[in-house]
Design a protein that fits this description.
By secondary structure, this protein is an all-alpha fold. Helix content is 65%, strand content 0%.
Length: 124
């Protein structure tokens, strides 16, 4: 994660990762949350699994804004970098089928945050 986000220290990378994963944890529920937690390293799994599910999922833009509000000195641009850095690593750690299931739970726009193209659903 430190390399992916080009963070100066491991502690900074871990702090940003915890913030982003805690925000994501409230948006992923059910089997997808369990499978995601089982696939990620132990600390990341704990952060994901410990979150209370949100009642209304945030749009991708609002998700980035929410993360920005939790990172001291963050701007929308740096928060997008932080979110994309963490979620791209998550996408690389899990298989494509689980990623597809996670993205199916989230509003449109999140695929780009995971470093993937936003594909149109079939029959559009």
């Amino acid at each position: 994660m430190k390399e992916a986000g080009q963070y100066p220290t491991r502690a900074e990378a871990e702090r940003v990762s915890r913030i982003v994963l805690s925000a994501l944890g409230g948006h992923v529920t059910g089997e997808e949350r369990v499978d995601l937690a089982q696939t990620l390293p132990e600390e990341a799994a704990r952060v994901i699994a410990s979150q209370i599910p949100v009642t209304r999922p945030l749009t991708a833009a609002a998700f980035v804004e929410a993360v920005a509000a939790r990172i001291e000195g963050s701007t929308p641009a740096t928060a997008r970098w932080d979110v994309s850095s963490v979620l791209s690593v998550v996408a690389d750690l899990i298989d494509e089928e689980l990623l597809r299931r996670v993205l199916a739970q989230l509003p449109p726009g999140y695929a780009l945050l995971f470093g993937r193209a936003q594909l149109a659903p079939p029959n559009c």
